[in-house]
Amino acid sequence: MTDAGDGGQVAGKGAVGADAGAFTRNSYEFCGVEAFDESDGDGVTPLSAALDLEGAEQLVLDGLTTHAPAYPSLLAPQLAESRRQGARWYGDEERVCMWAPWLLRHA
Length: 107
Prior knowledge:
Radius of gyration: 14 Å
Strand order of the largest sheet: 1-2-3
Strand content: 15-25%
Number of domains: 1
Number of strands: 3
Distance between the termini: 6 Å
Order of helices and strands: EHHEHEH
Number of helices: 4
Largest sheet: 3 strands, parallel
Oligomer: single chain
């Protein structure tokens, strides 16, 4: 990418801060979002932070897309449970097939 007007940004949604556990609320707050607001994201990064590059094309993946393939239950119990219940993460083949070709078109 040569400047902020080039390229693309990919983000996941499905983990709303107001409904989330402490791990997600603290992560969103670290990114500048009020811990108990309605900000959506992937459980680690809120959409407002993930899609902050002005002028770039944006892709928001539908359905809960988590930030990592696994979470320790003690650290992030809600995210760990969402993975056990089938939530996808960015590296799952289905998700990679959604975002990788899109990013290559916007590189």
